[in-house]
């Protein structure tokens, strides 16, 4: 062990008459540990929120969606779909027909976004139909010919929160009312049709569980009086972070009048807000480390005052000013290193426990997820440790310089 490091460690073990210095040193260590642990936990929460929201968004929606805003849907979509599937980077594609409806059961009702789908194709671009928790989505398979018998009441799959709000269960019949009504002598009459609930999906994402519903594509076309027309083509691509680039290629392949949107554009504000929250949280909690650094400055300043005679004796034996300075720099480094190590262990332990046991519930209607997620990253530990050690070392500069300026003759004059 180097001479300076040995003395620094020795000075940290205060004697009884220096108990105040020892208490201040312990408070400094705990302050650094609290700041580091708080930073690790806060960053783990923001990382977890971003990860879980992204996974749910990407799993519940298509990576890229193609539409024709200026026209009433996409006609001759079979040939277009087959052609666009060959676009570079596209893994799968599925047609869909969207529409806003009112779903009611008895006196209870709720607004919903209904989507007519081909279930086998829809499963290749979205996971919602694979998240059916009650019943089954098998009955959404297309049926040839006009509805007869049991098909007179076509099937529908709805979200868990929507099912709870209208009191629907598998096997129940619901009334779907479309605002796109029919013109009659009495005016425009809303179009409505009864559907049988065959499945209830639970994605864990409130936005989808409270509004999304699925029916067969042919049933949606009959409900909206749009024969052989779709409103959107959904795509799944190899690299979801290349969604904008692949979307441009799909637009060019589709021709004029078509427009694409992707999951990053649809949720840009959400992820921007999460990133800003992460930065602000880091800055605010870093102030705890700064307060702990002030405690280190106070502890070392008191140490210099207590050790003035010892410093003078060392300098009279030939110890240089640079060595004296390094003794107190090492002291501050040891305090900071100890506190940082404790903080990292505590922060990662609590983050792991929170992510594993999910003991902090959230209101899904507000936060879109049912529990507080934790996702600690190694890079965050490196950044937090670097900031903690750097701030603490800066706090040692003044006490170490003061110790190096002690004049042996003046310090020992009255000894």
Automatic annotation (TrEMBL):
Superkingdom in the source lineage: Bacteria
InterPro entries in the record: ABC3_permease_C, Lipoprotein-release_system, MacB_PCD
Ranges where the ABC3 transporter permease C-terminal domain occurs: 283-405
Compartments reported by the entry: Cell membrane
Transmembrane segments: 20-45, 279-306, 327-350, 378-398
Pfam families, A to Z: FtsX (PF02687), MacB_PCD (PF12704)
Any single GO BP term: lipoprotein localization to outer membrane
An example Gene Ontology CC term for this record: plasma membrane protein complex
Keyword entries, A-Z: Cell membrane, Lipoprotein, Membrane, Transmembrane, Transmembrane helix
Coiled-coil segments on the chain, per record: none
Membrane topology note: Multi-pass membrane protein
Residue ranges annotated for the MacB-like periplasmic core domain, each copy included: 25-252
Family designation: Belongs to the ABC-4 integral membrane protein family. LolC/E subfamily.
Name the UniProt record assigns to this protein: Lipoprotein-releasing system permease protein
Organism: Granulicella pectinivorans
């Amino acid at each position: 062990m180097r001479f300076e490091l040995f003395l620094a460690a020795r000075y940290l073990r205060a004697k009884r008459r220096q108990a105040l210095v020892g208490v201040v040193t312990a408070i400094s260590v705990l302050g650094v540990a609290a700041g580091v642990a708080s930073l690790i936990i806060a960053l783990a929460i923001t990382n977890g929120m971003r990860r879980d929201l992204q996974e749910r968004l990407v799993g519940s929606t298509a990576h890229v969606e193609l539409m024709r805003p200026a026209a009433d849907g996409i006609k001759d979509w079979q040939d277009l779909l087959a052609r666009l599937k060959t676009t570079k980077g596209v893994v799968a594609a599925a047609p869909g027909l969207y529409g806003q409806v009112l779903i009611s059961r008895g006196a209870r009702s709720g607004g919903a976004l209904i989507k007519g789908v081909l279930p086998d194709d829809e499963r290749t671009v979205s996971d919602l139909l694979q998240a059916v928790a009650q019943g089954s989505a098998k009955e959404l398979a297309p049926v040839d010919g006009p509805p007869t018998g049991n098909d007179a009441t076509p099937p529908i799959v709805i979200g868990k929160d929507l099912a709870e709000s209208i009191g629907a269960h598998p096997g129940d019949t619901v009334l779907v009312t479309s605002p796109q009504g029919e013109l009659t002598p009495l005016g425009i009459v809303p179009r409505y049709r009864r559907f049988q609930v065959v499945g209830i999906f639970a994605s864990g994402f409130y936005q989808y569980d409270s509004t999304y519903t699925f029916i067969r594509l042919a049933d949606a076309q009959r409900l909206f009086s749009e024969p052989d027309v779709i409103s959107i083509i959904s795509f799944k691509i190899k690299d979801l972070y290349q969604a904008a680039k692949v979307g441009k290629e799909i637009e060019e392949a589709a021709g004029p009048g078509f427009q694409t949107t992707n999951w990053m554009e649809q949720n840009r504000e959400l992820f921007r807000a999460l990133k800003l929250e992460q930065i602000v949280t880091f800055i605010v909690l870093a102030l705890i480390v700064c307060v702990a650094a002030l405690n280190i400055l106070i502890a070392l300043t008191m140490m210099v005052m207590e050790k003035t005679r010892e410093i003078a004796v060392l300098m009279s034996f030939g110890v240089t000013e640079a060595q004296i300075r390094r003794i107190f720099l090492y002291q501050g480094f040891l305090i900071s290193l100890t506190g940082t190590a404790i903080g990292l262990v505590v922060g990662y332990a609590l983050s792991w426990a929170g992510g594993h046991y999910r003991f902090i519930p959230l209101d899904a209607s507000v936060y879109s997820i049912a529990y507080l997620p934790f996702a600690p990253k190694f890079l965050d530990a490196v950044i937090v440790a670097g900031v903690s050690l750097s701030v603490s070392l800066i706090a040692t500069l003044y006490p170490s310089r003061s110790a190096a300026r002690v004049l042996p003759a003046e310090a020992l004059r009255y000894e």
